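Data deposition worksheet. Section B asks for the primary sequence of the deposited chain exactly as it was used as input, without tags or linkers unless they were present during the calculation. Section C holds the resulting structure in token form. Section D is free text for depositor observations; keep each observation to a single sentence. Incomplete worksheets are returned to the depositor.
Section A, Depositor: J.P.
Section B:
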Amino acid sequence: MKIAAGADHGGYAIKEAVVRGLRSQGHEVIDVGTDSAQTSVDYPTFAHRVAALVANGEVERGLLVCGTGLGVCMAANRHRGVRAADCLTPHLAEMARRHNDANVLCLGGRLLSEDEAWAITEVWLATPFEGGRHSKRVELIELQEGPA
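Section C:
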């Protein structure tokens, strides 16, 4: 699978650990940065880079990590066709895939250990979209923009 990965300084260590795991399983990873935890950077920059690659179909899925996972999730979900989910447990990752066809996984670099992040990622990768009644709901997400 082709996966884009990005993080800010708060998510750098977890991104690096998960990317190593992805590559060890044979996935092709496009790492859009950041390249260090030492310099403060703006998470939306990396979230938009990953989300654009997913939205354009250049990659199948995306991985984003910031301190909590919340900021990158909000930024990524601004892109049409992106369904980013901030997952703190394997169960959330499973449901995000099974019911919502989440194509971007967001993780909290300051909330999860490397082992926890990898466990969540493995479930997210392995879980298929259930389809059925959930397909209509995913379509409704794409059709509807909120009120001004």
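Section D:
The beta strands are 2-7, 28-31, 61-66, 84-86, 104-108.
The mean pLDDT is 96.
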